[in-house]
Amino acid sequence: MPEEAAAVHVSVIGNPDDSVVITIRGDLDLDSATVLGTTLDQVLDRPSPRIVVDLSGVAFCDSTGLSSFVLGHNRARAAGGWLRLAAPGEWLLGLLATVGLTPRLAIYPSVADALATDRDL
Fold first, then answer.
1. 4 lies in some domain
2. N or C: which end of the chain has fewer CB within 10 A?
3. Is 25 inside any structural domain?
Protein backbone atom coordinates (compact mmCIF):
# COMPACT_ATOMS: atom_id res chain seq x y z
CA MET A 1 0.00 0.00 0.00
CA PRO A 2 1.46 3.43 -0.90
CA GLU A 3 2.23 5.76 1.96
CA GLU A 4 -0.17 8.69 2.16
CA ALA A 5 1.40 12.14 2.40
CA ALA A 6 0.72 13.98 5.63
CA ALA A 7 -1.72 16.79 5.09
CA VAL A 8 -0.74 20.31 5.99
CA HIS A 9 -3.29 22.74 7.38
CA VAL A 10 -2.75 26.47 7.09
CA SER A 11 -4.97 29.07 8.71
CA VAL A 12 -4.79 32.86 8.63
CA ILE A 13 -5.95 35.24 11.33
CA GLY A 14 -5.93 38.99 10.83
CA ASN A 15 -5.39 41.20 13.88
CA PRO A 16 -6.77 44.68 14.62
CA ASP A 17 -3.27 46.17 14.15
CA ASP A 18 -3.20 44.74 10.57
CA SER A 19 -0.67 42.06 11.45
CA VAL A 20 -1.46 38.54 10.28
CA VAL A 21 -0.76 35.21 11.98
CA ILE A 22 -0.39 32.20 9.69
CA THR A 23 -0.65 28.94 11.63
CA ILE A 24 0.77 25.78 10.07
CA ARG A 25 -0.01 22.25 11.22
CA GLY A 26 1.62 19.22 9.62
CA ASP A 27 4.65 18.60 7.43
CA LEU A 28 6.05 21.19 5.03
CA ASP A 29 7.51 19.35 2.08
CA LEU A 30 7.44 19.40 -1.71
CA ASP A 31 3.86 18.12 -1.77
CA SER A 32 2.44 20.55 0.79
CA ALA A 33 4.57 23.71 0.73
CA THR A 34 2.53 25.14 -2.16
CA VAL A 35 -0.32 25.72 0.32
CA LEU A 36 2.01 27.89 2.41
CA GLY A 37 3.37 29.65 -0.68
CA THR A 38 -0.12 30.50 -1.91
CA THR A 39 -1.14 31.78 1.53
CA LEU A 40 2.00 33.90 1.82
CA ASP A 41 1.40 35.34 -1.65
CA GLN A 42 -2.05 36.50 -0.58
CA VAL A 43 -0.97 38.19 2.66
CA LEU A 44 2.20 39.66 1.15
CA ASP A 45 0.09 41.65 -1.31
CA ARG A 46 -0.85 44.03 1.53
CA PRO A 47 1.04 47.28 1.95
CA SER A 48 3.78 46.94 4.61
CA PRO A 49 2.84 43.33 5.45
CA ARG A 50 3.46 42.23 9.04
CA ILE A 51 3.31 38.46 9.24
CA VAL A 52 3.95 35.95 12.00
CA VAL A 53 4.20 32.31 10.96
CA ASP A 54 3.27 30.00 13.86
CA LEU A 55 5.43 26.89 13.47
CA SER A 56 4.42 25.16 16.71
CA GLY A 57 2.53 22.48 14.78
CA VAL A 58 5.21 21.73 12.18
CA ALA A 59 6.90 18.38 12.68
CA PHE A 60 8.92 18.30 9.44
CA CYS A 61 10.15 20.90 6.97
CA ASP A 62 12.26 20.38 3.86
CA SER A 63 14.04 22.87 1.61
CA THR A 64 10.77 23.81 -0.10
CA GLY A 65 9.30 25.03 3.18
CA LEU A 66 12.53 26.80 4.14
CA SER A 67 12.54 28.53 0.77
CA SER A 68 8.98 29.78 1.39
CA PHE A 69 10.13 31.43 4.63
CA VAL A 70 13.09 33.14 2.94
CA LEU A 71 11.07 34.32 -0.06
CA GLY A 72 8.31 35.58 2.22
CA HIS A 73 10.84 37.41 4.40
CA ASN A 74 12.45 39.04 1.35
CA ARG A 75 9.10 40.13 -0.11
CA ALA A 76 7.86 41.51 3.21
CA ARG A 77 11.07 43.52 3.72
CA ALA A 78 10.95 44.87 0.17
CA ALA A 79 7.39 46.09 0.85
CA GLY A 80 8.39 47.80 4.11
CA GLY A 81 7.07 45.07 6.40
CA TRP A 82 8.34 41.93 8.10
CA LEU A 83 7.86 38.19 8.39
CA ARG A 84 8.63 36.54 11.73
CA LEU A 85 8.75 32.86 12.61
CA ALA A 86 7.29 31.83 15.95
CA ALA A 87 7.47 28.76 18.18
CA PRO A 88 9.49 26.36 16.05
CA GLY A 89 10.03 23.02 17.73
CA GLU A 90 13.52 21.94 18.76
CA TRP A 91 14.05 19.96 15.55
CA LEU A 92 12.95 22.80 13.26
CA LEU A 93 14.96 25.38 15.20
CA GLY A 94 18.01 23.15 14.81
CA LEU A 95 17.37 22.86 11.07
CA LEU A 96 17.04 26.64 10.72
CA ALA A 97 20.37 27.05 12.56
CA THR A 98 22.10 24.31 10.57
CA VAL A 99 21.20 25.87 7.20
CA GLY A 100 22.22 29.32 8.43
CA LEU A 101 18.81 31.00 8.59
CA THR A 102 18.72 31.93 12.29
CA PRO A 103 20.78 35.12 11.80
CA ARG A 104 18.69 36.13 8.79
CA LEU A 105 15.13 35.37 9.86
CA ALA A 106 13.43 36.78 12.95
CA ILE A 107 12.61 33.78 15.17
CA TYR A 108 10.64 34.08 18.41
CA PRO A 109 9.72 31.57 21.13
CA SER A 110 5.98 32.30 20.79
CA VAL A 111 3.44 34.09 18.62
CA ALA A 112 2.80 36.55 21.46
CA ASP A 113 6.52 37.43 21.58
CA ALA A 114 6.65 37.90 17.82
CA LEU A 115 3.64 40.21 17.88
CA ALA A 116 4.72 42.17 20.95
CA THR A 117 8.19 43.19 19.87
CA ASP A 118 9.14 46.33 17.98
CA ARG A 119 12.41 44.77 16.91
CA ASP A 120 12.88 44.21 13.21
CA LEU A 121 15.67 42.30 11.52
1. no
2. N
3. yes
- pTM confidence score: 0.90
Rounded mean pLDDT of the chain?
A: 91
Q: What are the CB-based long-range contacts (under 8 Å, 24+) for 92-100?
A: 92/55, 92/58, 92/61, 95/61, 95/66, 96/66, 99/66
Structural domain including 17 reads 9-116
42 Cβ partners below 8 Å, 6+ apart? 12
Q: Quick: pLDDT tens for 55-92.
A: 999 999 999 999 999 999 999 999 999 999 999 999 99
- Rounded distance between C-alpha atoms, residue 21 and residue 85, angstroms: 10
What mean pLDDT comes out for the span 34-55? 94
CATH of the domain at 29: 3.30.750.24
- Report the length, in residues, of the chain: 121
In the chain, the number of structural domains is 1
Q: Is residue 1 part of a domain?
A: no
